[in-house]
Amino acid sequence: MKKLFTLVSTAMFCMQSFALDYSSNPVSNNYVQQWGKLKLVGNQLSSESGEPIQLRGWSTHGSWFKGCYDDQKDFENMKKEGANMARIAMYINEGSGVDKNWVKNCIDYTAALGMYCIVDWHILTPGNPNAGDYSGYNDFFNEMGSYVKQKGYKHVIWEICNEPNEDKDGAPAAFHKVWDWVKKYAANVLPTIAQYTPDAVVLVGTPQWDQDVTVAFQDPLEIKDSFKDLQLMYSFHHYAGDQQRYLGIMSGAAAFVPVFISEWGLSSHTGDSGCDTKAGDHMLQVANGQNLGGQIISWANWSWADKGESSGTFTGGGYGNLSFSQAGNYIRENLKKGDNWKKCESTPYESAQVFDGKEDFILDLGAYDKGGQDNAYFDYDEDWACPGNDINNTKPCNAGDAGTQDNFRPGEFFDIGYSSKDKSTAYKTLGYIGNGEWVTYTIDVKRAGDYEFEVYACDHKDYNTFAIAVDGKPGLVTADGEDTRYQALYLQTCKGGDENGDYNVWDWVTPYNAYNKNIKYKLHFAEAGEHKLSFAFLTSFSGMGSFKIKGNPNFQSTEDYASVAAPVIAPNPTDGVFNVSVSENSTVKVVNSLGAVVYSQEVEANSTATIELNAAGVYFVSVVSNSFATTEKLIVK
Hints:
- This protein is of the alpha/beta class.
- Helices cover 17% and strands 26% of the residues.
- The strands form eight sheets. An eight-stranded parallel beta barrel has the order 3-4-5-6-7-8-9-10, surrounded by six helices. Strands 11, 13, 16, 19, 20, 22 and 25 form a seven-stranded mixed β-sheet that branches.
- Helix 2 crosses helix 3, helix 3 packs parallel to helix 4 and helix 4 packs parallel to helix 5.
């Protein structure tokens, strides 16, 4: 549970998909036996065999709260209601302190039932995980890790810091210091966990009560050899009753990092004040895949307790009396639906905008895809932008000049304006941008490759941080074509202006990462053809005037380009040895599922490189030449 902070408002391609449904007989199902040791495939939490899965269930309220039911019968009842996972909230400062035996019992109960469990080191106040109050964290994870290893368990997920926070109001972007705390803490605790469970799934807390998951790709954790095989995910917490404006943060981040909703409720952030089931439906819709990355996101509901709050599962008297609350019944109903996954769907506004690869291309920002909220964009408008709008964004509007003056795209709500009063020469602009908004465009790229780009920016300073996705995945590489975990860009003012700068002065600028200014970026299109180009706005934003992709006149003609043979990667799947054959001088690189480069080599034209990988898993093989920039997923058995 967290204190509400102020955040000014909050954006695809897709197909509907369904995984195997194991909910037909939830009591007898052994989910751990069916799915095995969980891992990440790209950003997706997956079974041991690589199939997408979604963990769903409840969080306990803590051993100290006597109305929190957490004996073996309660876990059986959770499972009976359709849960395949339980979160064990080990409060540190609240209640009677750390109870290791209680945690071990809960681990044993869930293991016996074939359920996954999250062991949560539940920091809250103070919000700094390095505080002296939490000095026992390594002792705790040493003992718990040793216990799990001794038992041979593979169902345990670690959550290393519940809700890091600086106990102040404000947008998450203003609290990067909290992320510095987490990075320092993670460098100490992750090696301890890896000592016992080297490839376990670990949930890392994010700033301001787990709201800003974007820090994980703005300023990524340094991955050290001592914990390089851990499957790191990032926590997001959501209280649907009064935090709909924050939902887009998770929706956009899902294209860039693995996200886990380790706590959410239908109430307000206080845990009380009623249940907003409509807002809950929206949260589940996003978690079920209708987000920018098409990620199926796991979740734990707060909480399995009868504390007397509207967020509690029971109204009092416990499960034996079947006294489920409104929130409890809502979660039961949704758990019994099983897998209900549907990714976002969007289509070009009129037709795909065409980039030939040779000439500079300026994107028409007004021609964002059709499909509406959660498909083509995520928009949240505060009532000062759209009078009469409410906390659930039920009356949004196009607050830009194109909408208010010209009735541009009626019935659509992403906020389009103009870069000058002379509309005949102006670019269409994106404005009224808040944390978590995103928007998608269909673009027809005639030549694969890596391209420089610029953004038309005004002279008013804001946080101005955004990221670019291509087909729901990170869209940026370095100038040398290398993958990078630093995917966030800062858009500086065009003339050196400040927070009082002029919204009506515009010019072209090159954005950069504020935490690693040495990286020079390019926009990566692995293949020619139609792509979904998306902008995810991570903070409040002064506005984007236009977006220019700079052409490469050195590309071959279309006829010559078509005659060049594409690289061949085979066999795939492989037992570990495979070949990459190229017709041009090429850079061949292999990246593992954590983003680490495990092979890189220059390969001469008309030759074949033979590569051997020792570890089974999912890899990504990229081949970059003058004509091609392709990436293929490789399965090593």
